Amino acid sequence: MIEFHQVHKTYNAAGREIPALKATDLSIQNGEIFGLIGHSGAGKSTLLRLINRLENPSGGRIVVDGEDVTALSSGGLRAYRRHVGMIFQHFNLLSSKTVAGNVAMPMELAGALSRTQIAARVAQLLARVGLADHAMKYPAQLSGGQKQRVGIARALATDPKILLCDEATSALDPQTTGQVLQLLAEINRELKLTIVLITHEMDVIRRVCDRVAVMDAGEIVEQGTVADVFLHPQHATTQRFVLESEHIDEASQRDDFAHVEGRILRLTFRGEATYSPLLGRVARETGIDYSILAGRIDRIKDDPYGQLTIALMGLETDVEAALAMFHAADVHVEVLR
Amino acid sequence: MDALLTRFFPNVYWDEIWQGSLDTLWMIAGSMPFTVLIGLPLGIVLFLTGPRQLLAQPTFYGVLSFVVNVLRSIPFVILLILMIPLTETLVGTSLGVAGAIPPLVAGAAPFFARLVETALREVERGIIEATQAMGASLSQIIFRALLPEALPGLIAAVTVTAITLVSYTAMSGLIGGGGLGDLAVRYGYQRYQPDVMFITVVLLIVLVQVLQTVGDRLVVFFSRK
């Protein structure tokens, strides 16, 4: 478990104190994929780098599996960092080393394994990330997605318990992003690895994370399970991220809805309910009429969900009956108008 | 052939040219290792203590940087003369190939150190960060990441420094340093024998071309980008 207790970080730039992270409490469970989302400058990169102490906190305590990592000696810190893998937006592979050389590097630096042991482990790691045929190539000969796979293999070399992902898919095209995210999810399951990732894309969070924290101006403004945060965003920053990810322009949507009669509701279905023919049944049994204004049926990680914005038209009593039916079916209803 | 040579280069003693060329090569070969030995660590220290680097030490960096700049701003001819007493203590003479080496090193090492600092700055910060994240110690960061990644840049720095040394060796001829520069001064300038001057200049050009070509080839060979 990674715990932050009142951790804060201020930078000293040109004599002025700039707060990068305000006093923050946070706990990340073992084995989960925890996402941190925020715009650039929100403090997510600082928070991530505090975990492996690439940044030192200005105050507070960071406790990982019961050990206070803010109090480590320099030798202790180096040993601790071997249990925390990290991958980067720009991969940060050594251009002077082959793919195999890059993956071998953390093990060579640790000095605990023999040459043959390292070679065997490199082969195994490269096979796991699907790059067995590229061992002797140099990073410059690889595509972005392949480079990130090398980065992942390298990060896993010393058998870490935690993997930090610093905007790991931001430099990749959408298809490659999907493949890298899938690989991360697989590794998380296979190795029971805790993954902390930062991103500015809600889509990345939606596809792989279990829980998410939303950051704005150096603090966490909202956190919870991805489904809760994604489907019912409370904070303005979160709401903007969700709208962005669904490509919705709030103002034009409001204009569009102004011409629609009746009550406007947002229905959120989760799990099996997503695929049940509820709307039709409600319309038949209550006699109301409905029109779908906006909607999305998709998955959050592995769970299906649907979110529909509908207008209900009919007698007031029928509308109330319809609402009761939605509630009874465990559909979350927000009345927008 | 002999007749032709005598006709166009009446004043040239070819064995002296041969000896001068050897002396020049010896001066470069003798001063380059010391230049690297002093300049490389100095450049690494400059890099590491520089602004926003791993061991950022503004005051220390400021002082070191100033000293390097001072050494670099003294014209080499002046440095040659200033160094005479020190050179005599170090190698027992201020003349000949041996006497030229201390001032050559003193002139070239700060120059090389700056080039090293620049080459190291070309290494992406992310690579240092990634190496740190692997749990590397400072010396591992330097020897396993920084220097290998900067290798093409460092080879280019050695090339430029060697070429600078060629021109420095020519200047050391002024105070009896031997080599091709010495010939150019004594015959070409003091006796006004342009044919000797011409030959020494051609040989120096050839030397510089060879150094540059070899350096460029090595840079390409070691570049993986």
Automatic annotation (TrEMBL), chain A:
Function: Part of the ABC transporter FtsEX involved in cellular division. Important for assembly or stability of the septal ring.
PANTHER family: AMINO ACID IMPORT ATP-BINDING PROTEIN, METHIONINE IMPORT ATP-BINDING PROTEIN METN
Span of domain ABC transporter: 2-242
Location(s), subcellular: Cell inner membrane
One cellular component (GO) term of this entry: plasma membrane
Family as reported in the entry's similarity comment: Belongs to the ABC transporter superfamily.
Protein name: Cell division ATP-binding protein FtsE
SUPFAM superfamilies: ACT-like, P-loop containing nucleoside triphosphate hydrolases
Topological category with respect to the lipid bilayer: Peripheral membrane protein
GO biological processes: amino acid transport
GO molecular function: ATP binding; ATP hydrolysis activity
Major subcellular location class: membrane
Protein keywords: Amino-acid transport, ATP-binding, Cell inner membrane, Cell membrane, Membrane, Nucleotide-binding, Translocase, Transport
Keyword Lipid metabolism: no
Pfam families: ABC_tran, NIL
InterPro entries according to UniProt: AAA+_ATPase, ABC_transporter-like_ATP-bd, ABC_transporter-like_CS, ACT-like_dom_sf, MetN_ABC, MetN_ABC_transporter-like, NIL_domain, P-loop_NTPase
From TrEMBL, chain B:
Membrane topology, as annotated: Multi-pass membrane protein
InterPro entries in alphabetical order: AA_ABC_Transporter_Permease, MetI-like, MetI-like_sf
Localization (cell): Cell membrane
One Pfam family cited in the UniProt record for this chain: BPD_transp_1
SUPFAM superfamilies named among the record's database cross-references: MetI-like (SSF161098)
A cellular-component GO term for this protein: plasma membrane
Residue ranges of domain ABC transmembrane type-1 in the record: 21-215
Membrane listed as a keyword: yes
Keywords: Cell membrane, Membrane, Transmembrane, Transmembrane helix, Transport
CDD domains: TM_PBP2
GO BP, sorted A to Z: D-methionine transmembrane transport
Keyword Endoplasmic reticulum in annotation: no
Top-level taxon in the UniProt lineage: Bacteria
Transmembrane feature ranges: 25-48, 60-84, 90-115, 153-175, 196-215
Primary localisation category: membrane
Homology family: Belongs to the binding-protein-dependent transport system permease family. CysTW subfamily.
Official protein name in the record: D-methionine ABC transporter
